[in-house]
Structures are given as structure tokens and as C-alpha cells.
Amino acid sequence: MSAALSRRLLIFAALISAAAIFECFLLYERPGLGIGHFYYLSIALAAMAGGVAGVLINQDVPSNELLTTGTFTRGVTYVTIGALIGWFASHNRALVAELRVLADRDVLTGLPNTRAFERAITRRLSAGRMFALLVADMDVLKDFNRDEGFTAGNDALRRLADRLATSLGPDDDIARIGNSEFAILATVQSPDGAAQLAARLERILADDRTKATLGWAAFPKEGDNALALYRAASERLYARKVMRSYLRPVPEPVEQQAV
To answer: Do 48 and 56 contact (CB within 8 A), yes or no?
Structure first.
């Protein structure tokens, strides 16, 4: 086979393979699938065609040794190695993406953690639209840990997290930001909407095993940055906890029988 014919065949194969890979990429590519790695084959064919062109220019290289059995063996080896490297690279990207998700999750509840919450509130502050920050604190966690053990307390936290997550809208954000604290970011139409949402969530959590107190703050009325909003919501939360402790009925002392 002449060098000129070999070059034309390699260029033709490179163009056909590139067109086929491009069409498959448009139709079937999904995140993590890696169809684009097949472009290495087209690149390899084009490089081989360039090598043939070099043979045509350099008269010292005999063209009858251009394509041999060893040439095809090396070509298959290079393509296989390229495919393996592409697969490992794609697999590594998938693992990195999974680790990134896990790094933003709370181990106990599966909710986003403080790191993810900071990014969420930063996005909302950058958007500049009104929203509410709600901070919820579980009222009975210490009782669970004292009376039933830490396993019961962890189960109670999971129930509370599930109830909060299923009670919010699809565009709302929730995260666990402390031992018994959860933060919620919700879109509201007015500052009063934050108080109404807090009252609704407290009614949903009225069960003794998931009871929680909520505080709230509305952007931009009660703060124009994350720290100011969190401080306002936390102050309201703990003020309401103190008020409830005063309103809670004091149990009657048990009279001791005379011996």
C-alpha cells in the first residue's frame, strides 16, 4: 500500500470517526458517561496521517515499511491505553463529585451541613430578593439523651429533620447547623410571612418527640448580611424559649408521708 493512499485512508477514517462520535455525543451523552473520550481515536488517526505525510516529505524513510503488522498492533495498543485512561479519568470525576456531595451533608440527618448552608444564603443575598431565615432548636433533646440515651436523641433529631424537610417548598433550603439547631431559608412575600411560616412549622412539630422552637428574621428588613440575619433569628428564638419556660406550669411538690 502506497504512503499517499495510507494517508488518505487515515484522514478519511479520522473524519468519519470524529463525525460519528460528535453525533453520539449530542444524542446520548450524560454526566459521567464519557462518550467524548472516543475523540482520542480520531486524534490518534489524524496523528498517524501526519506521520504518513512526514514519510512522503522525508525521502530517506522507505514507504513500503509504513504499514506493517507491527503498526496495527501498536495502534490497537495506543487506542486501548487511551480508552483505559479515559475510563479512569471519568470514574475519578464521578468519585470526586460524590465526595463533594458527602462533604456538604450532615452524617446523622442527611441534610446539608453548615458549609452548604453558607453557600445557600450567599446565593440568596446576591440575588437581592426578600427571603426569611428561620432557626429551629429542638426543645427535648436533652431529655432524650438523659432519659433514653443518645440513640433515642439521634432518632428524635432524624424525625425532626424529616418533618422539617417534608414541610417546606421545593425552592426552600434547610440545613443542620448545630447539635440541635436547624436553619431554613424560605422565600416570603412580606416580613410577616416569616412569622407565619414559623408558626406553621411549630404546629407541625407539636408532637412531644419532635417539638421545637423557631426564631426568624426577614431579609432585608432585619439584616442585610448573613451574620445580622442569624443574630436576629437566634435572639428571637431564645427569647421565645425563655418566655415559654416562664409560662410552663410548675409541677406540684410531692408531699412526703409522715413516718
So the answer is: no
> How far apart are the C-alpha atoms of 138 and 181, rounded to whole Å?
7
Mean of pLDDT values over 140-166 = 79
CA distance 185 to 134: 7
Query: With the CA atoms of 186, 189, 190 and 195 taken in that order, what torsion angle do they form, in degrees rounded to the nearest 10?
Result: -40
- Answer yes or no: are the C-beta atoms of 55 and 66 closer than 8 Å: yes
Is the predicted pLDDT of residue 137 greater than 90, yes or no? yes
The residues, any chain, with a CB within 8 Å of residue 233's CB and separated by 6 or more, are 133, 134, 135, 215, 216, 217
| Residue at grid coordinates 440541635 | 180
**101 in Cβ contact with 93 (< 8 Å):** no
Taking CB atoms within 8 Å and a gap of at least 24, the contacts of 240-249 are 240/213, 240/214, 240/215, 241/137, 241/139, 241/213, 244/213
105, 175 contact by CB (below 8 A):
no
- Per DSSP, the three-state class of 256 is coil
The CA distance from 121 to 145, in Å, is 31
Sign of CA dihedral 167, 172, 177, 182: negative
Residue 106's closest CA among 148, 165, 149?
165
pLDDT of residue 89: 77
List pLDDT tens digits, range 49-104. Answer: 666 555 555 555 555 555 555 566 766 777 788 778 877 777 777 777 777 777 88
The angle, 0 to 180 degrees and rounded to 10, between the axes of the packed helices 226-247 and 114-127 is 120
Q: Quick: pLDDT tens for 89-130.
A: 777 777 777 777 778 899 899 999 999 999 999 999 999 999
